[in-house]
Amino acid sequence: MSDTGFKAGLRRELRQLGSRRMYILCMIVVPIGMALFFLSLLSEGLPMKAPTAIVDLDHSELSRTIGRNLASQQLLDVSYDAESYDAAMEKVRRGEIFGFFLIPPHFQRDALSGRRPSLEYYTNLTYFIPGSLSFKGFKTQAVMTSGGLMRTTLVSLGMDADEVNSMMQPVIIDINALNNPWLNYNIYLAPSFVMASLALMIMLVTVFSITGEIKRGTSPQWLATCRGRLSTALLTKLLPQTAIFMAVGLFIVWLFFYYEHFPMNGSIWAIAGATLLMVVACQAFAVFVCSAVPNPRLAYSLCALFGILTFSFTGFSFPVPSMYGAIAIFSYTAPVRYWFLIYINEGLNGVDLYYSRYYFAALLLFPLLCWVLFPRLKKALLNPVYVP
Amino acid sequence: MNIFTRIGNWLGSAAAVMASEFRAVFHDAGALLFFVALPLFYPVVYTLIYNPEVVRQIPVAVVDDSRTAESRHFVTMASASPSIKIYDYCSDMGEARELMAAGDVYGIMYIPRRYASDLANGVQTNVEFYSDMSLLLRYRTFVAALTDLQIKIASEVSGERLAAAGMESYLTGDSPLPVQSNSNMLGDVEQGFASFVIPGIVVLILQQSMLLGIALLGGSRRERRGRALPEPDLADRAGAGARVWGRAMCYVSIYIAATIYCLHFVPEMFNLPHSGSPVDYLLFIFPELLAAAFLGQALVGLMKERESCFLILVISSVLFLFLSGLTWPRYAMPDFWLWLSDCIPSTWAIEGFIRINSNNATLAENSHPYIMLWILTAVYMIAAIVVTRFVDPRREAVKS
Alpha-carbon distance B243 to A165, whole Å? Predict the structure, then answer.
């Protein structure tokens, strides 16, 4: 065993891991810190009470009722009573409110005399979540007001109340949000973003430890320790890191599904397995990059660029099928994309493992493919050139 | 020495630092990558990712247990919505669930057996829709489309029934409702994803690329500190204040072109919201550049070597994006994160720029973020001077 250089390589690497605080920071503190950050930032789940305003230009009994109903909505915090459209608009531009509901002058008179006045609501969509939530609140209020008035009129004309109800809303479409009925943003955002953060740190630390040898000119010595075998050298260098990252990944999975009780409708083992495979896949990705460009700056830049862009092009917020084809194709090159798809299938939706088979296969493909450029990496390690 | 000579000397050494920093930047391919290539290409890449703007034609499976002309009419109306594409009819829910598990559809529409008879009997009827929740954007798109569908069907049916009951007087307009309502979208009128996210992202790119570049330069400088010193020139002998200001002036002037490109040309090129006055948003963004230039120099305290910036700073972009309130509103943040969010220049810069750019607000209306940016500028300037005094002290000529 000792003549393969495995033990010697491992010893050398463990010494290095222990000697740099940077490793502890990047491998443990940052990924777990990001997990705690997302979980606590989004702890409210769905942000209720978007600050909004009402502009009541009618001052009638009816308009005051509308105002009261609006204020009682869970989604809205009607924090201002603006005296005019311009005043409310200025509050929007100042960012004090995300929208307002306007009741025009003579609203009650016009509504009761059949002149069809119009309720206007304004939502600022430059901020998506508060914008769309206040839109929803306003729209509900507008529909309720108009329906309520019509109901009153028709009933007073002698129609049966049930008949009126079924006529006003003959078909109700119940929209069931599968497995996340609370529309909880934490469940939706935290797993993908935290894992993508972990993936980014795995790639950067791998680049750090491999190109660091090139930078310090110690790479020939590193290879020599491992009897000149690149596979032993990489294995001994990356194995301790693999173990730490896997432990961190599993801890994060525990945080999600046992501490925070995120929906787990399938097998936790599938998610844990996907996490372990993703760690190795990300390391393989970084080894591949280091082999392709054995220059610290370029390897870091590529991994950082790629790692940051994965947050976007892997479709955590904007769906991949809606992207341009030339961009969507990159989503398949990110290991964390497959973790995300497995999490959706196994955690959120709890479908049969069969449907995730390609995603597991894809994760396995990364370590298999990184061998391709080994000769190139070996050459670079034997003749280390550091270009700052 | 009188005060004017002192000021003159200080300005002279700051200018010397600025000149020597320019030389350092233009001889460092890594710094140029951050300062020039990143602000040039990242906004384009990001916009291309989100440029389809809206989600359309989401595949949906239909389980129609009613199998009547009425239920077919319902499905036809649903498929008329640009958001929904009827992928297939399924014979039962099991079949539809399989399509969803395979990722072929993201929604299932179930029309019950009673549908047509309920309508005929004037009884309220329910249609069930099941939405996949892997992405909230899809769910949101479904909700908007189905709410419209429900209102459309209601006005169709109630029109017919009112006519049948002899109450046509209610049918003067296109809708029988006594009160109209009108939704007005502000800022991001098309409700597009790129239009929402890119104005914030470009500001963050300006800040993060500058921080990375400064950290790279500072880390390299600290790595070289052990090496033998040539004759110290005016820049080497400058004090911490002159160093910090000279360098900041170098970075800010490099960023003038990138700022105009990111804040003006990127929205123009991609037809994103862009309505504010250039004078307002350029004046507004100036303290953001300055604050970033100082914050970067303060962070050099953490950069022991050239490559540290990658390990420490890259991930902060994700952190700062979420702290900015662009995705998760600030009013819903827990106190600690709100406080941290207050301390990050990009929070205020993004907030103010979006309002000026997308909501056509003025600089005066954004006085609060503007003042916050200046306060952070002052705080980080002091931090940068303290850090520089420790990690990059002035070098006197060795007296022999």
Answer: 75
